[in-house]
């Protein structure tokens, strides 16, 4: 850590050939790269009216990132200038060559001539403009250098130029051995790489304060809007450590280090950086300058609040509660209502882990609106809607509440919360089994433009909301049998949210689930079993449920039943109603396969009561289908047909293709079973209607490549055609059945004892 003496007095340094000066009051120093920029500005002033309007616009757009950004190699700088104005790039190169290959007095004369830019009644550069301030900073920093430091700067300039010359010579030799078209493509790709690459920021010396601030703000913006274009976690941490080595009290660098550690779920480093950030705020007095003596207390209470949020994120609820109590105590002493409202929101989140209570949340929303905190109020409304959705409230009431929060979003231009609200609607419609509405909401979010201004080339809306919506979209396409489209969406997700990003676990889980369903449909149970471990690592409840499904498909009934009973107890304890219903349906199927049909009925009725209580329409429809199948098994197909008409419409409208096929197959079974008591003519009509339904079911099963169900449908059709005396159609179905039967293993389960 630098001593007080070193920070107050002029301390010239030379690091790896770059001269920089820690001048009190001067935040910039001269480097060879900045000298090249000064030459560019000088040549731009000389060119004057010779430059076209388009070229001048391009150069003006290029100048700001060059002035603010870190030092870069001369070759890259020259390429950037050539894209805007090739003639000017040549002039800059010649001027630098004359200076580097000339004498020291040439550089001295150059800096003397820079002051002339501000002279005259109509100067080339205004003193208060961006370019003018840069020129004045450079002139001031250069004038502060001693003669020995000027000589070191000149030597560094020569090395900077010679390094570029050597690289050009190597490139020319390589181009002679390489296809020119490949080289052009390579150069174009290199130029179009991210906003900041590692070789750009890894300059030969420490960044100036302005460069550091620009670097930190750009990386923070990229982490929020487009994490893929930010530096890799390891590279970013390396650069932050380099910054902190020269300025350990740089609070913003500690905070970016905290955000970077969160990306890789590093609890120790993130806690360490967060504490250092608030320590530096207090030590440097940054808060107290703007808030008086209150600034110190403000830093302390928000430090405790952020620490509570951090512990909550990593699941350390006891430590989070202690930190939150500390934040509440300090906020109450300071009478800080804003901080107290944030504390109240986090208190609800912590208590939600123990018991469901809307009282704190409703109080938080009312108080947030009272104190003019729309962001916090909207988040509270979103949480209330989510909780009430799990509690089974009517969808129309939830949508009305979300409409009220949307008014807040649009009124205050809260772009991020608009995205969260639409993603929430998508998830709610999925929960209630309305896939068409969920698809509409997903498309709405994807077609929206962000309200936040981001740099050109930066992907907008790389947030959790978009990850959630894209995952739902991939699953919806997979359920309808569009596996190629689902793969494309998942491929886009992998590019947009790389494996090391914080939202990557979302698409990883959905990818594993889609692969699992495809393997189960195809009868490749060994492949599905291998995917269970990956699903369990991402979501333990989903993993255990799918393990039970695999065991059930492999006819390991006792093991599957034990696993499902344990899962049922756990889900009832944590109030995961959706999974409870799914487990009950699987248990009922186990009873069918064990020929315990009467035992399955109470289980199905329990599932139906839960589905209707919590307004889970699609699960309710699926449960009714299972009840109809039970009635078919118990010998009352007419009653089964009656209740099928209640449930089949939502399944055909919003269901997955596999469920549609199973529903039509069940209708056909019930029609055939009911036809036994019909007159001969009416029986023939019923069987022909059943064949049509079987054709529809066969189309659905073929769409998702469900070979086992296809085999069963073909067997059933062959029997019906034989009954109707249609020999040619029977033989065709029999041939297709035989092909599938030879391809698939037979488990010895009777055909009638399986609904799905």
TrEMBL record:
Subcellular location: Cytoplasm, Cytoskeleton, Spindle; Nucleus
Cited InterPro entries: Apc5 (IPR037679), Apc5_dom (IPR026000), Apc5_N (IPR048968), TPR-like_helical_dom_sf (IPR011990), TPR_rpt (IPR019734)
UniProt cross-references to SMART domains, sorted A to Z: TPR
Biological process annotations from GO: anaphase-promoting complex-dependent catabolic process; cell division; positive regulation of mitotic metaphase/anaphase transition; protein K11-linked ubiquitination
Domain Anaphase-promoting complex subunit intervals: 254-353
CDD domains according to UniProt: Apc5_N (cd16270)
Domain Anaphase-promoting complex subunit 5 N-terminal: residue ranges: 30-167
Pfam family, one: ANAPC5
UniProt keyword terms in alphabetical order: Cell cycle, Cell division, Cytoplasm, Cytoskeleton, Mitosis, Nucleus, Phosphoprotein, Repeat, TPR repeat, Ubl conjugation pathway
Cellular component GO terms, alphabetical: anaphase-promoting complex; spindle
Pathway this chain belongs to: Protein modification; protein ubiquitination
Family named by the database record: Belongs to the APC5 family.
Record function comment: Component of the anaphase promoting complex/cyclosome (APC/C), a cell cycle-regulated E3 ubiquitin ligase that controls progression through mitosis and the G1 phase of the cell cycle. The APC/C complex acts by mediating ubiquitination and subsequent degradation of target proteins: it mainly mediates the formation of 'Lys-11'-linked polyubiquitin chains and, to a lower extent, the formation of 'Lys-48'- and 'Lys-63'-linked polyubiquitin chains. The APC/C complex catalyzes assembly of branched 'Lys-11'-/'Lys-48'-linked branched ubiquitin chains on target proteins.
UniProt-recorded name of the protein: Anaphase-promoting complex subunit 5
Lineage: Eukaryota, Metazoa, Chordata, Craniata, Vertebrata
